[in-house]
Amino acid sequence: MLEVRTILGWRKSFFIELCNDLELKYGLERSRVTIIEKVGIFVYALAKGASNRDLGERFQRSGETISRSFHEVLEIITGRSNGFKGFARDMIKPTDHTFQSIPSHILHDERYMPYFKDCIGCIDGTHIVACVPEADQMRYRGRKTLTSFNVMATCDFDMCFTFISAGWEGSAHDSRIFLHAINTPSLNFPKLPEGKYYLVDKGYPDRRGYLVPYFKTRYHQNQFENVGPNNAKEVFNRAHSSLRSCIERSFGVLKKRWKILNAMPQFSVQTQIDIVIAAFALHNYIRKNAQDDDLFNIVAQHPDYVPLDELPDVFDDDINHGSYRETYLEMKNIRNNIASQLWMMH
After folding, report:
1. pLDDT per residue over 82-124, tens digit each?
2. Which residues of the chain have pLDDT under 70?
3. Do 82 and 190 sit in the same domain of this protein?
4. 129 and 230 inside one domain
5. 78: containing domain
6. Which of 204, 182, 217, 191 is nearest to 336 (CA)?
7. pLDDT in tens, 44-64
8. Less Cβ around it within 10 Å: N or C end of the chain?
9. What is the pLDDT of residue 80?
């Protein structure tokens, strides 16, 4: 397992801690294959996108043993055998369900405080490669040519995911996934306290609790490199983009670490969805328990870095928002007030 830890850049103590948690807290069972080896097989598969054959050669185990070990760990992480009450559910949730305190990322940054003091996180979608039968491929093709899952997530400003909706086809629109998530009680979407809100891009409905940027206005950080903001709307969009980039960077770290998300093996669609959930859960576990993680440290040292494939399509005017575009004046007033304050300070 030394090689697995080296590839992932993990300390021995952290890897052992993960193994112990999966065994003692969540019930991963010992067998002829040790807990350490089972977890090693699983995280190596996610990190390298390795096939069953490659894993067999790497760990000197039969294909059957590799497959059984992989699926045992996957089942424990997703909690599939326990009503989805397990590791993933414990990892992917808000640290503070009341959202009463101002996030430190905002509190200690004059670019955002006090303007965004009521913001509790960000929402966005990302496409993760899916391996599906030819007959289903049209449904799974999104904006890009590859078949994919469209995964919606919320994250806090510590780069931890607080909710995910995985499994939607790549052709599903962000707003459809969003509305299903917030209107389906069984999914446990984090409830918004009065006056609090998420930052979202223009692919989401403009409604109470979700603050969108100004449309048809410069947005991305690189659009302001040569010419700064010229008005209140541009000042707001630049601040909105900078603060919301937290979720784009989080997606970037997730995909950089877990190569399997960029080249999904030929598992069943349900198993692929479970792998996505496991990757998000392990992302949070690492963030919360390995503060010296190399990938998170690199992103911390370059706060403006955003992976190119995670940039939102803020100038796509073909999106149909239905009746929401003009409905929630409350959020428009919040946006206009913040824009005015930022412009005065600018």
Report:
1. 666 789 999 999 998 899 999 999 999 999 999 999 999 999 9
2. 1-8, 81-84, 143-144, 304-327
3. no
4. yes
5. 2-89
6. 217
7. 999 999 999 999 999 999 999
8. C
9. 79
User: Cα(69)–Cα(48) distance, rounded to whole angstroms?
Assistant: 17
Nearest to 118 by CA among 232, 208, 203, 188: 208
**Residue at which a domain ends, from 89, 104, 120:** 89
Tell whether 280 is covered by a domain: no
Residue 309 within any structural domain of the chain: yes
Determine the length of the chain.
346
67 and 104 assigned to the same domain: no
**Residue 110 sits in the same domain as residue 81:** no
Look up the pTM and report it. 0.91
Residue type, 127: H
Residue 286 belongs to a domain: no
Residue 95's Cβ-side half-sphere holds a number of Cα atoms within 13 Å equal to: 17
41 and 150 housed in the same domain = no
Cα–Cα distance, 154 to 19 (Å, whole number)? 27
Q: What per-residue confidence (pLDDT) applies to 223? A: 83
